[in-house]
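Long-time lurker. I teach an intro course on protein structure, and each term I like to show students one example going from raw sequence to a predicted 3D structure in C-alpha cell notation. This year I'd like something fresh instead of my usual example. Would anyone be willing to generate the C-alpha cells for the chain below so I can use it in lecture? Attribution to the forum is fine with me.
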Amino acid sequence: MYMTTVEETTFREHKKPEIYGRYIDDIFVTIKETDVARKLSDVLKRNSLLNFTTEHSQQKTLPFLDVLVKQQGQFKTTVYTKVTNAGRCLNARGECPDAYKKSVVSAYVNTHHIVKRHRLHNELDRIRQLLTNNDYGDQTIETATEKKENRRILRIQHDDEKR
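-- Reply from a regular --
Happy to contribute to a lecture. Here you go:
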C-alpha cells in the first residue's frame, strides 16, 4: 500500500516510463536517457522514506530479483543466481511448520517457468540438487514438480480450447 501511494505521488510529478514494473519495493524500468532516470530516482526518493538505489544494464543485461533480463529486440529472461548464493534454503529438517517447507519447494519449482524449454531440464536438475542438499526428499520434490507440470498442461489445453 505504501509503494502505491509513493507511485501515485511520483507519477503526478514525473511521466511514468513506458516499461515500469514493481514487486514490493523492487522496481524494473527502462529509460534510455540517464538524466531522465536520475530525475525519476530523485522524485521517488523525495516522495518516500525508502532509500532507492539504481542499477544500470551491462551489455543490455540486468539481474532483477531472481531473473536475468536480456534485451535482444525484446526481453529474454532466464533464472538468475547470484555468485554469492551458497545454495542454502530452509532445511527440510528445520523446526518450523510443514507449510513453510512445502512453500520453499513450490517456490523453487515455480521459478522454472521463466526458463526456455531447451534449458528447462538443466534448471530442474539444479533445483532438485539444491533441494536435495537441503534435505528435501525425492518424493516431495517430484510431487511439486508434477503438480506444476500438470497445471501447465491444463493451461495449454485451456488456451487451445479458446482458439
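Some talking points for your students: The radius of gyration is 20 Å. Residues 59-84 form one domain.
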